[in-house]
Amino acid sequence: MKRSVILASGSPRRRELLAMLFDEFEVIVSDCEETVASQDPEKVTEELALQKAEAVAGSLSLRTDPVLVIGADTVVSIEGKILGKPADRHQAAGMLRMLSGKSHNVSTGVALIGLDAGVQTWNKSFSETTVVTVAELSEEEIMSYINTNEPYDKAGAYGIQGMFGKHIQGIGGDYNNVVGLPVHRLYQELKAYLN
């Protein structure tokens, strides 16, 4: 029997990326309260991805079909400091100044949970990290980008796939991981699981 796929994330970018792997999937946004025990960016993303996936999986006890739930979370970190989504212009500007002229890490954690007749039968989590180098930004460039309103729903106050792309000097690793889902690694993990 075909396995239904559920993305436990409301991110439109993750939806677009998951569409590279599946023709059909559902989106159920978890409303779990996110808590983290680790300070390590990769572990933080795995913890949060698993919390999202488990919250959605827990709501599916009445499903009789085989289901795969995919949770994901992305953080930006520089010099060991995790940058979340900026709350306001001031915070966004501060984050962009921090990233200016330097390399930073973008880590995405992914959690996969398999359910059969509403019972969890399998789970796996992993994280992927990409190194991103941002060119030196002038104050004018920072303010100009903040005025686009693009930074506010994105970790680290920027979207690589948007207007900020022109400030990216280089990347080492999976580009899609920076957007929000490590498509290649996820594909490899799913091949092992679904076959």
Keywords:
195 residues; 6 helices; 7 strands; alpha/beta; elongated
What does this structure look like?
It is a single chain. By secondary structure, the protein is an alpha/beta fold. 31% of the residues lie in helices and 29% in strands. Strands 1, 2, 3, 4, 5, 6 and 7 form a 7-stranded mixed sheet that branches. Strand 1 (4-7), helix 1 and strand 2 form a beta-alpha-beta unit. Helix 3 (89-99) packs across helix 4.
Entry summary:
The protein has 6 helices and 7 strands, in the order E-H-E-H-E-E-H-E-E-H-E-H-H. It is an alpha/beta fold. Helix 1 (12-18) links the parallel strand 1 (4-7) and strand 2 (26-27).
Radius of gyration, Cα only, in angstroms? 17 Å
Output the helix-strand order. Answer: EHEHEEHEEHEHH
Q: Enumerate the spans where pLDDT stays under 50 for 5 or more consecutive residues.
A: none
Largest sheet: 7 strands, mixed
Provide the helix percentage: 25-40%
Structural class, by secondary structure, is alpha/beta
Tally of alpha and pi helices? 6
